[in-house]
Design a protein that fits this description.
about 240 residues, alpha/beta, Rossmann fold, 7-stranded parallel beta sheet, 6 helices
């Protein structure tokens, strides 16, 4: 580890890394010296991000994984731990959301898929990688939540439920893991200018929408913080309220 590359020698796993917030986080952690493991379902997009990181002098690899399938998550984690013998940083970024109507009209299959990706997958990934962090007596798990986890969201109740659940899951896990010097953090942004959701954020001014690089900078701050403390939760709002 050096001052220029504070994450040198560390392995960082980022889910949903093929675009948007996940891709920005991957680029940022690579610039800090980490070896990036990128996963998502779109192999072509993952390859593009890996090529960008390599062209910038970083180190990254990609492994597609469908986070709705527990067996694929288990195989993915096993592959990484067998190859690298470590996982220093896990960023649970992958997420989906639909805002199409009231809860009583939400199809069961949409509910199941949303909970599988937004809530069950972070649990399964923590379960897979936390033992290696505990053995190493170090590690950081960062979860990308949402301000929807703090407020009522009419026509988005299922999404809000998944993020409220993620918060409860991870703040409790933080208490379990801190005794092993493993830190767990939540980052809860408002609307971010990405392809996620309805795409309405692309119509807002720069000051009225959070940028993916803003979230990447916060994740970088969390995982490079001095060992004696950690930031458990960060709420991120756009400068201009619309």
């Amino acid at each position: 580890m050096t001052q220029t590359f504070p994450l040198a020698g560390q392995v960082a796993v980022v889910t949903g890394a093929s675009r948007g917030i996940g891709a920005a986080i991957a680029r940022k952690l690579s610039a800090l010296g980490a070896h990036l493991i990128l996963t998502a379902r779109d192999q072509d997009q993952l390859n593009r991000i890996v090529a960008e990181i390599s062209a910038a002098g970083g180190h990254a690899e990609s492994h597609p994984c469908d986070l709705t399938k527990p067996t694929q998550i288990e195989a993915f984690a096993r592959l990484i731990l067998e190859a690298h013998r470590r996982c220093d940083i896990l960023v649970n970024n992958a997420g989906v959301g639909w805002f199409q109507g009231p809860l009583h009209t939400t199809p069961l299959e949409d509910w199941d898929q949303l909970l599988a990706i937004n809530l069950r997958a972070p649990y399964l990934l923590l379960r897979a990688f936390a033992p290696a962090m505990i053995a190493a007596k170090r590690g950081h798990i960062v979860n990308i939540s949402s301000l929807a986890s703090k407020n009522p969201v009419p026509n988005g109740a299922a999404y809000a439920a998944s993020k409220w659940g993620l918060n409860g899951l991870m703040v409790s896990a933080a208490e379990e893991l801190r005794q092993h010097q493993v830190r767990v953090s939540l980052v809860a942004p408002g609307t971010v200018r990405t392809e996620f959701g309805s795409g309405q954020s692309s119509q807002k001014s720069a000051l009225g929408a959070i940028q993916p690089n803003d979230i990447a900078a916060i994740v970088a701050l969390l995982v490079t913080q001095a060992d004696e403390s950690f930031i458990s939760e960060v709420l991120v709002r756009p400068t201009l309220k619309k």
